[in-house]
Amino acid sequence: MSAATHIDLAALARDVKSWGRSLGFGAVGISDIDTAQAMPHLAAWLAQGRHGDMDYMARHAPLRADPQQLLPRAARVISARLDYRPRSDDESWLARETSRLADGAQAVVSIYARGRDYHKVLRQRLQHLATRIETAIGHFGYRVCTDSAPVLEVEFARKAGLGWRGKHTLLLTQEAGSMFFLGEILVDLPLPVDAAVSEHCGNCTRCIEACPTGAITGPYQLDARRCISYLTIEHTGSIAPDLRPLLGNRVYGCDDCQLACPWNKFAQVASLPDFEVRHGLDSTTLIELFAWTEVEFGARHAGSAIRRIGHDRWLRNIAVALGNAPTTPAVIEALRGRAGHPSALVREHVRWALERHADRTIA
Q: What is the pLDDT of residues 26-39, one digit of tens each?
């Protein structure tokens, strides 16, 4: 764009990073828009069907390959990291999370989803950053993206020097592990780009070994069809019976590969209050959550990413977890209370759970 010839682009890049930090971002970096290195991997992943029911991944692949289809004349990607560990966490947080996974009566919700919907928080902060740039230089072309937009966010963040791709396929950084969100601003400004950082996974395979369902089939290889996050969030239908026992007490998402990663000893607490735990989602039981009515589900998850899966899938997930829970009269009573649920999806998983407990009793 012609206006860029009158801008000190190096100084602007420095300012963008400073403004980003003042908005709560843990780090901001800048990359070009070239996707040539990442697209063959994505194409192979799609060809193998590893995206499961996420048809939009295949449908939007051309947009991921060419950001200029999202923003004409796009020249750079500003990538930003937003840490999400609750600020109330103390040094025992890793041990506490591991302990809850081992307690079959507890309901485990992925850490990132226990507070406000990150899409809204992240988009708002990115928009503030774009507006701050516009205030400084005048009108320019840009598009704010969160992970709901067809952008290769990990690839651009890697190229921008925010970290390296871990063997669990998430972005990793030495100073913050992987417990953060990524967001982008596509811009038509030819800003100077940052250098990628070196990888630091070495020979470690803890994330691969920790995956409960074997969804991480090898370094940098994820089969979403087996991933608990996919099964409890993206998958709309019946969960395969052979995978149900492997879900344990995880009812929304899964953090196991991250909890096992040594770099997450350095995971940063959130700079914003938005990701503080709501409605006891870090300490509640399966029976308590299973009792929520559809109205209670909608009200308590207002402003939460969880709300989008709907009450039926919420009950489906918890029914599976209750099937994996220790057999107690309270568990059986809770399941029987949903045995006649209007949703066939819920009834199927409740029936499976009750049969699991019946088999244990007989044995």
A: 999 999 999 999 99
Residues 262 and 250: their CA atoms lie apart, in Å, by: 22
- Can you tell me the distance from the alpha carbon of 282 to that of 187, in angstroms, rounded to the nearest whole number? 38
Distance from C-alpha of 259 to C-alpha of 301, rounded to nearest angstrom: 25
Residue written as token pair 């074997």: 214
User: What is the tens place of the pLDDT at every residue in 153-184?
Assistant: 999 999 999 999 999 999 999 999 999 999 99
Given the residues 147, 188, 256, 274, select the one marked as catalytic. 147
pLDDT in tens, 39-89: 999 999 999 999 999 999 999 999 999 999 999 999 999 999 999 999 989
Q: Please give the backbone phi and psi of residue 217, each rounded to the nearest 5 degrees, phi first.
A: -80, -10
Q: Which amino acid is at 308?
A: R
| Other C-beta atoms lying within 10 Å of the C-beta of residue 276 | 15
**Helix/strand/coil for 41:** helix
Catalytic residue check, 34: no
The helix/strand/coil state of 254 is coil
**pTM, whole model, 2 decimals?**
0.94
What angle do helix axes 344-362 and 329-336 make, rounded to 10 degrees? Answer: 150
